[in-house]
């Protein structure tokens, strides 16, 4: 596979221009392309630039979202096939307008195309001062109960971001051991063996061959499966999109909950002091290996992100760069 090195700023400009040519506004193009670019820079390759072609395919029949309920403590947005990257952020902007008064806002989004990462959506809210909990139902079956031979549930990812942490506390996880993107990348890169807890074959038997994976495996066995069921109900059934075998890839759901950090008596300063003090304590936890370092969610990936941004250089597969340049 042939990779080319390019300045991050240059790649960002190419990607944003490509999205604008396909109908996104300048602002929409900026944050949408960044969702893929930042995933790549953070080392989350299963959600990185290798998957940006699917984004452009979604733009061909993009709908227009509408707000159908706008109440003091909740919002319901009908996506109408609009782009999840855009709708989720617009929903958060509307929610944040209410947050100072209501302190807690629940948002349900019905019928949207995918966004790339629950973490990036939660991050958007946290950078504006809100605690954010985001679940995104994917609309299709990808994961089986442990030992089963058929897919029964989505791996509905969960994102949680905590404001006023440095670097930002950013949890971004699916309910499977690994997201399907890891299987796709292993196949593309010619990797012959993967850990056997990533997926199972058509008989429900764990396999180390990416080519033989038919279903994803829930993390922690029944625990991950139980969480997948709960997340699918919250981000699917609750927001009124079909789930389970009736689910549709083109009709996804999003559940977002925003919280003001001062809701239970804190000031911003006292919340910040308590949370950051707690996170710093992790560095003092003893380990049985001196080389082991303890990180909280988002910390290690941010360090990798910052290192590459400081260098302002990234290696991109030539086919991806060529695709973006030809849009």
What string, H for helix and E for strand, traces the elements in order? EHHHEEHEHEEEHEEHEHHEH
Number of helices: 10
Query: In angstroms, what separates the terminal alpha carbons?
Result: 22 Å
Strands in their spatial order, largest beta sheet: 2-3-4-10-5-6-7
Q: Strand portion, in percent? A: 15-25%
Cα shape: globular
Mean pLDDT: 94
Strand pairing plus helix content: what structural class? alpha+beta
Give the biggest sheet: 7 strands, mixed
What are the salient characteristics of this protein?
seven-stranded mixed beta sheet, 327 residues, 38% helix, globular, alpha+beta, single chain, two-stranded antiparallel ribbon, 10 helices
Short characterization:
This protein has 327 residues and is α+β, with helices and mostly antiparallel strands. It has ten helices and eleven strands. The chain has helices at residues 8-21, 26-41, 52-58, 84-102, 118-126, 180-188, 222-237, 268-281, 299-311, 318-325, and strands at 3-6, 66-70, 74-83, 104-113, 131-137, 158-162, 169-173, 199-200, 215-216, 252-259, 314-317.
Q: Layout of SSEs?
A:
Blueprint: E1 3-6, H1 8-21, H2 26-41, H3 52-58, E2 66-70, E3 74-83, H4 84-102, E4 104-113, H5 118-126, E5 131-137, E6 158-162, E7 169-173, H6 180-188, E8 199-200, E9 215-216, H7 222-237, E10 252-259, H8 268-281, H9 299-311, E11 314-317, H10 318-325
Parallel strand pairs: 3-4
Antiparallel strand pairs: 1-11, 2-3, 4-10, 5-6, 5-10, 6-7, 8-9
Helix pairs in contact: 1-2
């Amino acid at each position: 596979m042939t990779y080319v090195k390019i300045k991050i700023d240059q790649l960002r400009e190419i990607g944003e221009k490509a999205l604008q040519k396909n109908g996104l506004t300048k602002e929409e193009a900026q944050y949408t392309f960044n969702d893929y670019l930042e995933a790549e820079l953070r080392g989350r390759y299963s959600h990185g630039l290798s998957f940006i072609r699917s984004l452009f395919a979604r733009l061909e029949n993009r709908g227009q979202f509408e707000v159908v309920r706008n109440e003091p403590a909740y919002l319901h947005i009908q996506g109408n096939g609009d782009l999840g990257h855009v709708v989720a952020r617009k929903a958060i902007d509307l929610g944040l307008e209410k947050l100072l008064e209501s302190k807690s806002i629940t948002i349900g989004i019905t019928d949207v195309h995918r966004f790339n990462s629950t973490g990036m959506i939660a991050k958007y809210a946290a950078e504006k001062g809100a605690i954010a909990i985001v679940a995104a139902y994917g609309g299709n079956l990808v994961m089986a109960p442990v030992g089963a031979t058929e897919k029964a549930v989505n791996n509905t990812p969960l994102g949680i971001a905590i404001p006023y942490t440095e670097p930002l506390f950013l949890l971004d996880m699916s309910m499977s051991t690994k997201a399907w993107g890891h299987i796709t990348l292993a196949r593309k890169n010619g990797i012959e063996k993967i850990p056997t807890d990533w997926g199972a074959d058509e008989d429900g038997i764990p396999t180390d061959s990416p080519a033989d994976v038919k279903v994803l495996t829930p993390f922690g066995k029944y625990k991950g499966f139980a969480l997948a069921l709960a997340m699918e109900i919250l981000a699917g059934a609750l927001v009124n999109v079909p789930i389970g075998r009736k689910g549709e890839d083109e009709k996804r759901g999003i559940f977002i909950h925003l919280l003001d950090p001062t809701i239970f008596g804190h000031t911003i300063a006292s919340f910040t002091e308590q949370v950051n003090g707690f996170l710093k304590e992790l560095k003092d936890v003893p380990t049985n290996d001196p080389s082991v370092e303890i990180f909280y969610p988002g910390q290690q990936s941010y360090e990798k992100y910052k290192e590459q941004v400081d260098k302002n250089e990234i290696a991109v597969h030539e086919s991806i760069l060529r695709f973006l340049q030809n849009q």
